[in-house]
Amino acid sequence: MAALGWLTPRRRSATARSVLAGEASAEAARKSVPETVREEPQFPVVGDDKAAAFFDLDNTVMQGAALFHFGRGLYKRKFFETRELARFAWQQAWFRLAGVEDPEHMQEARESALSIVKGHRVSELQSIGEEIYDEYMAERIWPGTRALAQAHLDAGQKVWLVTAAPVEIAQVIARRLGLTGALGTVAESVDGVYTGKLVGEPLHGPAKAEAVRALAAAEGLDLSRCAAYSDSHNDIPMLSLVGHPYAINPDTKLRRHARQLDWRLRDYRTGRKAAKVGIPAAAGVGAVAGGTAAAIALSRRRR
Fold first, then answer.
1. Whole-number Å distance between alpha carbons of 182 and 186
2. Ramachandran sector of residue 207 (left: φ over 0; alpha: ψ -120 to 50; beta: rest)
3. Among 6, 13, 161, 209, which one is most buried in terms of CB atoms within 10 A?
4. Could you tell me which residues come within 8 angstroms of residue 1 by beta carbon, excluding any fewer than 6 positions away?
5. Does the global pTM surpass 0.85?
């Protein structure tokens, strides 16, 4: 029987090293379980009427900036000259190459747009916005983000665009995508005619967070059960408001912040190299540049 002594459990307390070894082994076992086995809770939650979703527009729902696409459409309709088109094209190319919202460029674009629409009727721009959506924007909607928005709608939740773009453009896009509505920058109008000024300030950065907070209060929403989606670090205040923040096609700063806080990330840009550095695919940039060059050349031939 002495030979079987090694089978008998030894009555002694575990040492600190053995405790450490056991904990390390358990942690290794947990990590070895495939991610597909660790199922996440269903989200969005079907029937949760206290939840809603808030989506940034530029480079989150749509590739590029809505304001720049709108400018191209206005140029086509003779609202301004080739020189202004070149400026819009440069701003759009910069935005797409950099993958971030530069306040100076965005401010310049807004001032250009305000000066262009001054004196025009709101109803006229709303009608033109419908046409411009079909011409320049519809094909630039990210299918992945569109699917996320549809998941919220299918769950019976409201979905809002929240953007610094003019509210008239945002409302057109929201309606075409079947979303609930849109929060956007409001341009002043008197008797239905644009004055060339803004009401307050652009809906950007912290202003977006305040708009979401106000809308949630009016709608009786629980922000801890809501979701928000954006590509830009400028929207961290909005993303931080909700219980389910998502970084979509994130710029470098937002990607870093999202990883630190364990936020969900989604990247729908084509090309892994482009996704790594926050640059859209070169083919897309070339398409915009080519289209702009063609428009300028055509304009010159007509003179």
1. 11
2. alpha
3. 161
4. none
5. no
Q: Residue 45: name the closest of 216, 214, 227, 240 by CA.
A: 227
Number of separate helices (H) and strands (E) present in the chain: 12, 8
- Cβ contact 254:263 at 8 Å: no
Share of the chain above pLDDT 70, in %: 64
Whole-angstrom distance, CA of residue 279 vs CA of residue 273:
8
- Going by C-alpha positions, the residue among 212, 234, 231, 232 that lies closest to residue 223 is 212
Report pLDDT digits (tens) over 55-65. Answer: 999 999 999 88
- For residue 221, give Cα distances in angstroms to 54, 143, 156, 203, 211: 12, 27, 13, 21, 13
Beta strands in the chain (DSSP E): 52-55, 158-166, 181-185, 187-190, 193-198, 227-230, 244-248, 264-266
- pLDDT for 275 equals 35
Which 8-state DSSP code applies to residue 142? -
Alpha helix stretches (DSSP H) within 54-102: 66-76, 82-98
Total count of residues recorded for the chain: 303
The answer to whether residues 85 and 68 touch, using CB atoms and an 8 Å cutoff, is: no
Q: Is 161 helix (H, G, I), strand (E, B) or coil?
A: strand
The DSSP bridge partners found for residue 246 are 229, 264
Active site residue ranges: 56, 58
Q: 189 near 120, Cβ under 8 Å?
A: no
How does DSSP classify residue 62? Answer: B
DSSP string, 185-228: EPEEEETTEEEEEESSS-S-THHHHHHHHHHHHHHT--GGG-EE
- Helix, strand, or coil (residue 75): helix
- Assess contact for 163 and 144: CB atoms under 8 A: no
CA distances from 153 to 44, 140, 142, 160 (A): 9, 21, 17, 10
Alpha-carbon Rg for the chain, nearest whole angstrom, is 25
Question: Which of 56-70, 258-272, 273-287 shows the lowest per-residue confidence on average (mean pLDDT)?
Answer: 273-287
